[in-house]
Amino acid sequence: MSAVFDVLNLKKAFSGLTVTNDVSLSMAPGDRVALIGPNGAGKTTFVNLVTGNLRPDSGEVRLNGETVTKIDAIGRVQRGLVRSFQVTRLFQEMTPAEHVALAVLQRDGRAGKMFGNFLSMPDVMDEASVLLAKLGLHDLMHRKVSEIAYGQQRLLEIAMALALKPKVLLLDEPAAGVPQSDTGRIEQALADLPADLAVLMIEHDMDLVFRFAKRVIVLAAGTIIFDGSPADVTKDAAVREAYLGSYANASHAA
Amino acid sequence: MQTFFSIAIDAFAYGMVLFVISIGLSVTMGLMRVVNLAHGAFAMIGGYIASYAAQDLGLGYAVAVLLAVIGTVIISIPIERLLYRRIYGAPELTQVLMTIGITFCIIGIANYVFGPTLKTIPLPATLQGSADLGFRSIAIHRLFAIVCGLSVAGALWYAIEKTAFGVELRASVDNASMAAALGVRTEIIYAVSFAVAVGLAAFGGVLGAELLPVEPYYALRYMVTFLVVVSVGGAGSIPGALLACLVLGGIDTTGRYLMPEFGEFFFYLAVIAIICIFPRGLAGRAR
Amino acid sequence: MNHETVTKTARQNRTIGRDLIGIGAIIAVAAIGYLLFPDNLALLTRIIAIALLVLSLDLVTGYCGVATLGHAALFGSGAYAAGIAAAHFGITNPLLMTLAGILGGAIAGLICGVIILRAHGLPQLVLSISLIYLFHEFANKASSWTGGSDGLSGISPDPLFGVYEFDLWGQTAYVFGVFLLLAVFVLLRFLVRSPFGMLCRGIKEDPLRIMAMGASPKIALIKMYVISGAVAGVGGALNAISTQVVGLDSLSFTQSAESLVMLVLGGTGSLFGALTGTVIFMLFEDYVSAANPFHWLTMVGALLISVVLFAPKGLYGTAAGFIGRRMEKRK
Ligand SMILES: Nc1ncnc2c1ncn2[C@@H]1O[C@H](COP(=O)(O)OP(=O)(O)OP(=O)(O)O)[C@@H](O)[C@H]1O
Ligand SMILES: [Mg+2]
């Protein structure tokens, strides 16, 4: 199947420190890819470059074959490239229903409408409540976000991303900061993602990675050092070196 | 040529006065991230104290300047303790409201105490008259303002770049919590910078009294001018502030010489153009 | 889904209920004002005009989080547009003059919005202050159109609907003003609850998040600025129609700063807050500046400082929060 998402030779340095070093990858609809790597490897920076929140020094990003490197972050979202944030960014005074409704309206180009209360727009509300029900947030849909638990806020991030009906979804550590007891819900939500959606997930929890991904990419110091099946990743010497670093050397020496 | 020379000297002197008044504002804004609209009010207080000391008490110019600086700093201490402390780290709107409230109060009180008239600060004989440069003569007071401005810039540069205090100050401007974690006593840095900023404002208020006459609405009239210096120069940047002062002094003075009718109009137009082109200031760091 | 529809209608009823209460409250306060100050309808009309300015400021500051000290530029432009239409073009129909005010305000809103939104933080504030001075200087110098510092006179609006004269007693102007305010209030209630209003609340909290949803904060804010300009323009036009002069003070920094004070006094981000703040401030101003004009500025300053320290949500916001908590407890 042809790729929906290509990254070609992306490079970025912050005042001399190369954070993204010649990264290339492509994804097809339905792909489930995990991007892993030690802290500070440049994973979030990669997402920011791809979404247009940061400007790359060189390289190219393509969506459905169209080069979007010159298009701003908003235009890329409108073309179907949607992300979630490593630390939730929600509107504290709004309810989950309002969050999702706003996303639905924005997707349909109706968020600029100046009349009508979304509570009285049945199509919007129905879609929002179905989506929220799927993620187990239905009972909380009219509470303020500041009153709901962090795990549920993470789910709401996913709900908002899904409401935009993306073609490519970039999830930056969707389970980060969620108590162990709640990760099941998030994992379920990930398993239920639309089948034709291309998903790239950054995650540190390896159990989650192994259950979710069909393909794993390892980033270390801005460079892709592994791109292959989950079964092979733990056997790879370069990956062991990147994660275990000096410990590995020490044990060799011993 | 003659006009050009007079404009240049006046612009330079005016720019230096602006610099002396505004540099403290720039440093404290970079350091404490407080949008301080009341800075001009401290310059005005300095002007009033000096005028009172020189005019009403008949003290000498140097004593008046000293009294103005010390007096203004003393007045500012309770204001900082009771009011500014409450708005460090608060949203911008809160800071705007608090400091504009302080400005209004100071204007009202100045109006009550000193009346609505213009105050003058008599210059000593040595600063009156003009110096002959052979082909042109310059008012000595202008030269004095220029020398003071350059000395302040030099002293600040030395203090910030070469002393231990300066290192700690720069660290705190960059990242206050990190500096605090490294053992820098940020409260002391804050307090000293605030006092220096207020003292310089008072000094500038006295120094510039010929160009920016002291009257109750001083604090409002020049509020935007001082803020412009900071936002054009970039908060916390001495070279930026210096450049901004020279540019703005140049624009303002040229406007007043060549188009006295439309001077202010073009000044604000220029300010808007500069900020629109450099939204983060001339020396602003990209975020 | 049945449960769903029940709560939905309950919510809708509650918001509609609050709208009706709001409309009722405005009419009641207007009637009380009329009965209490029958000789001072000019002041009451001016309060309404300024209330429109403060509502318009609330749209950008309270709902979108843009701090501005130059909002009178929108109000003054509306006033001059209505005044110039009448004095120079013979458009003396009060409704058409109001329309001119709306247009003038909206255009000024577009200009100010495009410029102010180029920067953030301090530079943004400086832009707003520079703009109000620029507008002021412009109006001052274009004296053949604006009358300069003497003010624009020669504005004599026709009777409203050809029947009700704008006379010395100011009854027509007052009633006209009350109706304008009601109309604007109802429209704004719709606006702040609409998807667009929600989008703006989102922008206030986290513009980057809104961008990640594919919406442009900048375009939304500029739209809001134009709407805000139209609202301020209604206020400006009302002022021009009722006083029959337009002065430079309507385009002043002081007017801008005072309207911000009124907004904060009442409480940002709420239409009722904006109205409350304006009424209290203006009555207070009328009383104090008549009694002791010398201390007026000191009082405003002290008022501002105490609001920041003791009632950061404003009088209406604090009262509403207090009553809300009491109601919660009783449940
Ligand atoms: N705006 C920036 N300016 C300078 N350096 C930056 C900037 N953003 C990130 N970095 C640096 O780039 C490197 C990669 O950061 P990034 O956030 O992409 O890592 P990450 O892989 O997402 O890490 P984590 O697993 O902790 O989320 C880090 O060393 C970080 O300090
Ligand atoms: Mg990261």
What number of structural domains do the residues of chain B give?
A: 1
Radius of gyration of chain B in whole Å, from Cα? 19 Å
Structural class of chain B: mainly alpha
Q: Whole-number average pLDDT of chain B?
A: 86
How would a textbook summarize the main sheet of chain C?
Answer: none
Radius of gyration of chain C: 20 Å
Number of strands of chain B: 2
In angstroms, what separates the terminal alpha carbons of chain B?
43 Å
Helices of chain B, by number, come to: 12
Biggest interface, residues from each chain: B-C, 44 and 45 residues
Q: How many individual domains of chain C?
A: 1
* Most strands sheet of chain B: 2 strands, antiparallel
Anisotropy-based shape of chain C: globular
* Spans where pLDDT lies below 50 across 5 or more residues of chain C: none
Count of helical regions of chain C: 14
Average of per-residue pLDDT values of chain C: 87
Describe this structure in words.
The complex is a heterotrimer of chains A (254), B (287) and C (331). Chain A has 254 residues and is of the alpha/beta class. Chain A has nine helices and ten strands. The C terminus of chain A is likely disordered. Chain B has 287 residues and is an all-alpha fold. In chain B, helix 1 packs across helix 10. In chain B, a hairpin with a 4-residue loop joins strand 1 and strand 2. A two-stranded antiparallel sheet of chain B has the order 1-2. Chain B has a single domain, classed as ABC transporter involved in vitamin B12 uptake, BtuC (Orthogonal Bundle). In chain B, 49% of the residues are buried. Chain C has one domain. In chain C, helix 3 packs across helix 10, helix 4 runs antiparallel to helix 10 and helix 8 crosses helix 10. Chain C starts with a helix and ends with a helix. The mean pLDDT of chain C is 87. Chains in contact: A-C, B-C. At the B-C interface, helix 3, helix 4, helix 10 and helix 12 of B face helix 5, helix 11 and helix 13 of C. The structure holds adenosine-5'-triphosphate (ATP) and magnesium ion. The site of adenosine-5'-triphosphate has 11 residues of chain A, from helix 1.
